Each structure stands twice: as structure tokens, then as C-alpha cells.
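Hi R.,

Here's the chain you asked about this morning:
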Amino acid sequence: MHSNMMGGGMSAYLKGAASHTTKLLESFVHNLNRLEAALYNIDGRIERTQENLAKLRLDHAEAQKNKAKGRGKQGTE
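And here is the predicted structure, written out as C-alpha cells:
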């Protein structure tokens, strides 16, 4: 946690493979909810990114197959 001399408010920095910052309020319950939401959102972003990467890998493999087929056809024409 970080405070700018108590007058600038407080922020929490979550650091891992990616970092995230969230501003904290005076209410402990609200702060806990904000931190939980930040962690939940990070999990969702990681999951969506993994799904997108899997799709890109499939697209790449399909493109490589199509490229190989195209080369074979050019040699027979």
C-alpha cells in the first residue's frame, strides 16, 4: 500500500506477471470489494487472453496447412 502523505489518498499496487493499481477509500469494506474486483478482473483477462492465443494458434496452423497446399498446387500446374 502507498499513501501520498495521507492527503493524496491511498492506492494498492498488485504486482505479479502484470501489475494493477486501485485507489482505496476510507471504508474497509469498499476497499476489500475493490481489491476483490481487481483480482477477479485479472483472472478474467488472463482467461480471455489464453482463449485468444489458442484461437491464434489454430489459425496459424491452418494458415501453414493452406500455404503448404498452395505450394504443392503451384508445382503441378
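One quick note: Residues 2-71 form one domain.

Cheers,
M.
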